[in-house]
Amino acid sequence: MLCANSAGRCEFDGCNKYIFYDNITAKKLNASNVAHIVAASPDGPRGDKTRSYLLSDKLENLMLLCPQHHKMIDDYVEDYPEELLLEMKKKHEDSIREMCDLIFVPKSERVIFFSPIKNVSLTHIDNQLTAQALLPQKRPASTCGINISIESAFDYNTSEYWSDIDNQLKRDFDRKIGNELDSDPNTIFSVFPLAPIPLIIKLGYLFMDKTNVDIYQKKRVPDTWKWIETRKTNSFSVNRIVVRAGSNIALIISLTAEINPKRVTDIVDADIIYIISAERIGVDAISSIDDLSDFWHVYQTVCDEIKNKECAVETSVFPAIPVSAAFEIGRRYMPGIYPKLHIYDDYNGFCKTLTIGGDC
Ligand SMILES: [Zn+2]
Ligand SMILES: [Zn+2]
């Protein structure tokens, strides 16, 4: 039983040596020491007149140790009192149990995607928080995940800026994600982005629908990347505004903030404006995977209509959307079926950023 709880490894804090094998000769051997925390005899290490007898054969009083560490705790009794040893035993056995629980949980490679938003460099992405977000359905495939961090020296809303970070993203994606997929096409990815919305749409587009990938978004309160909400919390509707006869299409997506159509017609020659709005507009417009999938269905219907009813091959998109919606728009884009998307971003007024689909 003690061997099972300790997984056959020395329970001395920091040792964790597997005791039934010799590394140098590669021979199996039993070098296990079953050590008493409170000695079996009152005169022994940490012994006690009454408790020694009571505890002598109790599992909770025994530790599996390598010979070296057994000698250590018995020779230096002052340094290794009962409480400290109990703590080591608990820590070791708890960790073993946690690890074993995870053996059959699928591994996912975290993609930590960072790029300053509107020239503001945010705090780094916490490695532990992203790892926790995967559990218990998935576990991290590697300790650090894949980091894609992109910055540009150009001014934020210039075309040089967007083409610079667009090129960097494509290059990093091929180098880091492409390599991973080449070595294992079944790799599961989990994406944690803190980046401008157009760039997140592009990242989704590079992943495409065929890759096994899911998206996480940062919540401030509580401080987590987990999808805490499990139910549907919002609904989405579509409006079609005819400005004049013609086939220039603009698409407004108002999930995190309302966008006045006037601001759109000031910038582009839109004849028809589609507006997708959330019933509840705000940073939490998409709070669950169900919300995300509801949004996706509405968005998909609009794309179909723009392509098939309006016969438009391209459309200007004005998004006020959360990270998860941005990623899905890119990931589920169907080249040749959906209109080409020109993405605009609001930074002291709308500016044209990246293009999705078409020949890019
Ligand atoms: Zn002993
Ligand atoms: Zn040891």
Automatic annotation (TrEMBL):
Pfam families documented for this protein: SAVED
Residue stretches making up the SMODS-associated and fused to various effectors domain: 170-355
InterPro entries from the UniProt entry: SAVED (IPR040836)
Protein name (Swiss-Prot/TrEMBL): SMODS-associated and fused to various effectors domain-containing protein
Organism per entry: Ruminococcus flavefaciens
Lineage, opening ranks: Bacteria, Bacillati, Bacillota, Clostridia, Eubacteriales
